[in-house]
Amino acid sequence: MKHVKAPVVIILSLIILFLAATSSHAGRKWTAQEHCFRSLHFIADGEFEEARVEVRMALKSKQLPEPVKTIAEETLKLIGDVMAGEMEKEKVVSCFRHYFRGLKYAADGKLEKAEEEFREVLKATQMPESIRRMAEENLKLIESALGNRMEREAVILYLKGRRNYDRGYVAWSTGKFRKAIAINPDFIEAHFWLALAYENEYRINEMIDECRKVIAINPGHVEAHYNLGMAYYRKGVIDEAIEEWEKVVALDPDYGRAHGSLASAYYEKGQYCKALKHYQKAIDLGYKVPPELARKLSAFIPFCQGK
After folding, report:
1. Is residue 22 part of a domain?
2. Helices (H), the chain
């Protein structure tokens, strides 16, 4: 019997490992956050039907953190506008491709080319505001890193993590964010997105820790306060959740989602008039409150009037 040569054995082993990995990947269950960001990648490929399926899957979750919830809602609207012919498909696809090329260049350490791509995104008129904000954030980080070796290394690691995250592979991003933080412990964006990555993995205690670190660096970070409240709520410590959401509406009185969350939390606490007040504010701001909560609170309108 002839012996199989070592190189052939190695090649066969690699093929088997590849098939196993792709089979596992194909059968995996995507999280709500991953569905959201997968939709962005489908848009960049011009596949709007697939993108709509993904973003709708994301929005089935009642506890998407910010800004993921906003990204999903704005993306669904964008898809609808494109499919209705109200926005030009080619221009939208081009914007998303510039965004993802920017992340790829940054992940490859080509910050100057990444900067050019993100500037192209900001020139676009047909882009969700949340995506535009992410491009602006990435551009500012790149500008601060140019000419600063240590800062450059941290930013590249962070943007490598964001590239994984924004392609829907959230679990792959955590190590990159942690490495960026090891270089720059005050890297607020890395702490913030690491908190979201922990939420995606249901590591709520770690999410709480990272949200607190963001707030320690910037006490006025509205989204970190909101997400911290959401983490507390998921742990069942409603008083702490209410405290954080009250901070949110103190910082930004027009934060509709926080008013909606406060309406739910106060209802659970039996503080129906407070719940009704925040429910009404959320409605006034255009935030959609769950119909079941609206039905329950309607019974307290006569009792709470004038209080």
Report:
1. no
2. 6-27, 32-44, 48-59, 68-83, 89-107, 111-123, 129-145, 149-166, 174-183, 188-200, 204-217, 222-235, 238-251, 256-268, 272-284, 291-298, 301-304
